[in-house]
Amino acid sequence: MAIIGKMRVTQSLVPARFLVLIAHLVIVITMFWSLDLNLISCLPPSYTTAQYNEKQTLLIILLSITLAMFLIELCGFVSGFSMFNQSQSLLSIAAHAGACVSLSFYLFDSWDCTLYAYIFGFCR
Amino acid sequence: MMQQKGVLSSVSLEIFLYLNAYYLALFVLAEVLLVVYKAEVLPYPSNNIALDVVLVFLLAFIELMRIFMGSKGNLTEHVVASAISLGFLIPSVVLTLYFLLWQTFVLRVDVVLCGVMLSLHAVEFLFLCIALCTFPRAHA
């Protein structure tokens, strides 16, 4: 009985992790695409081009690193290296779910874009 | 004389079909919620709402048939079932392209969601073709 229960939990970890990963990926790509909309919210009301460029470079670098890490994680997941590693799956689900929720707040409420650095730090 | 060929079913194809079934649920949920969002925010003609919602469910139905046939065909190393699954891939790609290109309002989220869907389709097409090439050897 316990073995069956454990198998069921393990089986549901795989799709849960996949869905959370994909949801996070969709949010990150959308963020990358609509970068300039969120950029304005983290600049002072009258900003210079230099300030704008600085923030833009920061966000582009962070988002690119995120996408690269996504590539690594998706490859590891789909190829089966980390698919049945339960503790790694749980950690991944928790981090990506946290990132999904905080990033959707970030997008909808247009948070300050330096906060993305903190989200990135905590969820990676 | 029959020779022992071992298991010809593709594990990769099975993994992608399994994950695609879950992604399909996410996709349908997201598209229906997006139609609600667009109807609230944008001037959405009511005829088009009906068309889009019907096409979402049509896509879900075709995809479910495709995943079911593909999975069964793969596990039983059955050529015809796998070929039917390959045939169902065409309408489901066309319907995904509808949501990517010809929908009433295409948001950026739509593009990303359809892009993920199409990349899953591409990977499955590849593995399904490989599987279809290897299955006839089981009975040769």
TrEMBL record, chain A:
Please give the biological process terms from Gene Ontology that the record holds. non-motile cilium assembly; protein localization to ciliary transition zone
Annotated TM spans: 12-35, 55-78, 90-108
Which superkingdom is the protein from? Answer: Eukaryota
Cell compartments where the protein resides: Membrane
The protein's predominant localisation is membrane
- GO CC field: membrane; MKS complex
Which keywords does this chain's UniProt record carry?
Cilium biogenesis/degradation, Membrane, Transmembrane, Transmembrane helix
Report membrane topology: Multi-pass membrane protein
Q: Name one Pfam family in it.
A: TMEM107
Please state what the protein is called: Transmembrane protein 107
Which lineage? Eukaryota, Metazoa, Chordata, Tunicata, Ascidiacea
UniProtKB/TrEMBL annotation, chain B:
Q: What residue intervals traverse the membrane?
A: 15-37, 49-68, 80-101, 107-135
The answer to whether UniProt assigns keyword Transmembrane helix to this entry is yes
Query: What keywords would UniProt list here?
Result: Cell projection, Membrane, Transmembrane, Transmembrane helix
Q: Does the keyword Ribosomal protein apply?
A: no
Alphabetized InterPro entries for the sequence:
Uncharacterised_TM-17
Record-level GO cellular component terms: ciliary transition zone; membrane
Parts forming coiled coils: none
- State the annotated membrane topology for this chain: Multi-pass membrane protein
Its GO biological process annotations read:
non-motile cilium assembly
Protein location? Cell projection, Cilium; Membrane
The protein in question is named Transmembrane protein 216
